[in-house]
From TrEMBL:
Top-level taxonomy: Bacteria, Bacillati, Chloroflexota, Anaerolineae, Anaerolineales
Keywords: Cell membrane, Membrane, Transferase, Transmembrane, Transmembrane helix
GO CC terms, sorted: plasma membrane
Transmembrane spans: 12-31, 43-65, 85-104, 116-139, 187-209, 221-242
Organism: Levilinea saccharolytica
Record's protein name: Prolipoprotein diacylglyceryl transferase
One matching Pfam family: LGT
A GO MF label: phosphatidylglycerol-prolipoprotein diacylglyceryl transferase activity
Superkingdom to which the source organism belongs: Bacteria
Family statement drawn from the similarity comment of this UniProt entry: Belongs to the Lgt family.
GO BP terms: lipoprotein biosynthetic process
Signal peptide: none
Amino acid sequence: MLPTLQLGPLSIQTPGLILLAALWIGVSQAGRHAPKFGLSSVMIDNITLVGLLVGIVGGRASYVLQNLPAFTRAPLNIIALNPELFDVWGGLLAAALAVLIYTQRKGLGWAETFDALMPAAAVVMVGLGLSHLAAGSAYGRPTDLPWGLNLWGVPRHPTQVYETLLALGVGILIWPREAGKLGVFGWGVRPGGVFWGFLALSALARIVLETFLAEQTLWLGWLPAGQVIAWGILAVGVFAVGRRLVFVDEPLSEPTGVTNG
């Protein structure tokens, strides 16, 4: 665990630094692959900026609403520079809505745009796991397995490592190698297939990860909220990918009524 990096008198929060590095690498990779989806690297930069700003505000707002009593007692914590005070799902939803509105105003195809952003999302998810490892957050349940990570004198599942490896696996599986193909599978997909494939695989990874987490948000006192949401996303994602698979002699694209520019 390395929550802070001390450089002389300067103290840097390592989790935030890792996330910034992951975002920079991810956006660079998305820009590199953007032409496969009919976009330019400049478009990716602009879209990412919009999504990032709205996502940060949305993620913090969602976290505050879920923990309102704590912030009522200490309202200044709402603007605290702490990346742990962030709801990932709320941030992603806010960012997705912002990107969707932006693409519509610019006359871009939403499916192609979200497909083009998936390399950035994949790298950021890997960075999220590493940031949790650095911060010591999102820790696992006690375990007797030999690879248990000792926290507070108790061997625990290294869920941060699991999270990083699962995110890395998802990224490898959906990474765009050529236009109209879904990652290493080489399956032909229509626009939107890469996006929905990423969501489905990420939801599956979350279901696995939630099994080992020590702390979970429970609905009705017993229902793991993370798994319920992930199962819903997985079902929708699998259905959407299935509709976008292209078989022999089928066209790889479908009219969208918009132009990429």
